[in-house]
Design goal:
The protein is built from 19 helices and 7 strands. The protein has helices spanning 8-24, 37-50, 69-81, 86-125, 128-133, 140-160, 167-185, 188-204, 213-236, 239-255, 262-275, 298-319, 333-344, 352-384, 398-417, 424-452, 457-467, 515-519, 549-552, and strands at 57-58, 61-62, 474-477, 492-495, 507-511, 524-534, 540-548.
């Protein structure tokens, strides 16, 4: 496909959307909820059912450990799509990644140049950490997106305006996104934001901007957005309990009380955290090379120096904490991508000649491995699944449609990559995006049918549906977070004490260690055990049939 008749910006917009679609949409909802996804999706469904939007609930109990924006996003996905499945609740995370990539290109072109901003957007879409998180209903992808947008809005205003001008626009714009970030995960992103902004302002000799009224107005705007939820929430819940939970969680993260391991801490600090930015972290050391003559001029130099210092200092400040986790620094993918884009897209070639000497052969090697391995994986998937019919949740057309759409998108991306009019840097970036899209497409074809045989949450939900007859209500006794409930189609009622069970109750799903609380007082007797289930945390749950002694008496 020749693109001589299309502006470079138009090609970039099209390619970014297609790359996002090829990487984040295939088989998005074809694998059951994993890890903490149940804690993000289930409160959103309870909000829809109970019309209580202020206080998230997990297993019918108030959940104070996280602000509710991620739950609102899950609920929004369900209400907008009209579906109650994995695809609907994961879609907001995928859309957050699209918004971040488009914002990176649209707002970063002034500072990084058209080509550098395009590269930075591709780096954001194709790093391992965000590719994983952007396909899950988890906090990290939206949190990274709102932090990135806050930083980009501020950098765009700082770059395009003379010193001292445009302050209100950039600070209020950044404050809006910072406020949304606080509704996702609290104030951690403020550390990243101010580390980078302060470093840029120091490098430019403009640190006095932080003492101006627009800065304080933007910060107050961010706090006001958070307080618009926090104040009514504190009134609806027990404010002392909320504060105690947040303080406990903060101190645990800070001092490592949660099963601290020195070996794990070292691995996270020097290895695991860097994996999230693969493959681009391999080129990040080049960004610390001596800037070129062109890059040492004016704000370009201040921006590059500020990104380097802000990135390094905030990473060290967070990861030195004993309780730090690699996901805490995932938002730093944004300034790292901007820094690489700034250096690669420099008008006098910047670091591209040095990077390309490693990039080209690595891309050829990985491409060959991915191509051969991908076809082998598809062949194995077909062979392994030839005797087994597709599970029902893969027969509704969504999985096949997303895979076919991914194949079509991959073909269009290939045509763009073969365009001889592309510059060497743009072509390498496009080919790298194509490689990642191919890997995700192979995963989308092979993984869902094979994973279906090992899905535990959907299987548990099926067993509960089979055992409990349709007229009966299934009662869950203080169940905490059970992802299988996401897949139930029958009525489910949560109870927190034996006295909360109605006399007609028959089936109760309960943690084994809480059985004495169900039978204490003699009001309820267990007539039989119907099912035993052990979750990933080794906690045992039982489905029991009960009988009310009061009713029988």
């Amino acid at each position: 496909m020749r693109s001589d008749h299309l502006p470079a910006a138009t090609i970039a917009w099209i390619f970014l959307v297609l790359s996002w679609a090829a990487i984040y949409l295939p088989a998005l909802g074809s694998i059951e909820l994993k890890g903490e996804e149940g804690r993000r999706a289930m409160p959103g469904l309870e909000m829809i059912d109970n019309h209580e939007w202020l206080v998230p609930r997990v297993g019918g109990e108030r959940y104070f450990r996280k602000p509710p924006l991620i739950n609102w996003l899950a609920a929004a996905g369900v209400m907008v799509t009209g579906r109650r499945d994995e695809w609907a609740v994961r879609l907001p995370s995928a859309l957050a990644m699209l918004a971040l990539a488009l914002a990176t290109y649209g707002l970063g072109r002034g500072a990084c140049g058209e080509l550098g901003a395009f590269c930075a957007a591709i780096f954001i879409l194709t790093n391992i950490g965000l590719m994983e998180q952007g396909r899950k209903i988890e906090i990290e992808a939206p949190f990274t997106a709102v932090f990135g947008c806050a930083l980009l809005v501020w950098l765009r205003g700082w770059w395009s305006c003379s010193p001292g001008s445009g302050l209100w626009t950039r600070w209020l714009g950044a404050g809006a996104f910072l406020g949304l970030g606080m509704l996702l995960k609290g104030p951690l992103h403020l550390l990243f934001f101010y580390a980078i902004v302060s470093a840029v302002l120091v490098s430019a000799g403009e640190l006095r901007e932080l003492g101006r009224l627009p800065h304080f107005a933007g910060l107050l705007f961010a706090i006001a957005i958070f307080c618009a939820w926090a104040v009514p929430h504190a009134r609806a819940a027990a404010s002392e309990e909320v504060t105690a939970v947040w303080l406990e969680q903060f101190t645990q993260r800070l001092n490592g009380e949660m099963s601290f391991s020195f070996a794990n801490w070292l691995r996270n600090l020097f290895f695991q955290s860097w994996i999230n930015f693969l493959p681009w972290v391999l080129f990040l050391p080049f960004a610390w090379q001596r800037p070129s003559v062109e890059e040492r001029k004016g704000r370009t130099y201040a921006l590059g120096r500020g990104l380097r210092w802000g990135l390094g200092s905030s990473y060290i400040a967070v990861m030195l904490a004993p309780g730090a986790s690699p996901r805490y620094v995932l938002p730093l993918v944004v300034p790292a991508s901007l820094l690489l884009g700034l250096r690669l897209g420099a008008r006098d070639a910047g670091i591209f000649p040095a990077v390309s000497r490693a990039w080209r052969p690595s891309l050829r090697l990985l491409g060959g491995i991915a191509l051969g391995g991908g076809f082998m994986a598809i062949a194995y998937g077909i062979y392994a699944g030839r005797s087994s019919p597709l599970p029902p949740h893969l027969q509704d057309g969504w999985w096949l449609g997303s895979v076919l759409g991914g194949c079509a998108t991959l073909g269009v991306l290939l045509l763009f990559c073969r365009d001889p009019a592309q510059s060497p840097l743009r072509r390498l970036t496009l080919q790298s995006s194509l490689l990642m899209a191919w890997i995700v497409l192979v995963y989308g074809i092979v993984a869902p049918p094979l994973a279906a045989a090992h899905e535990r949450h959907r299987a548990l939900a099926g067993e509960l549906e089979r055992i409990v007859p349709p007229p009966d209500v299934l009662f869950a006794f203080k169940p905490d977070s059970v992802p299988a409930f996401f897949y139930l189609t029958r009525k489910l009622s949560f109870v927190h004490a034996a006295a909360g069970l109605p006399p007609a109750a028959r089936f109760v799903f309960i943690p084994e260690d809480l059985l004495p609380r169900l039978t204490e007082g003699g009001a309820w007797a267990i007539s039989r055990q119907c099912l035993r289930y052990v979750d990933a945390g080794k906690r045992v749950y039982l489905l029991v049939e009960v009988e009310s002694r009061n009713a029988s008496g």
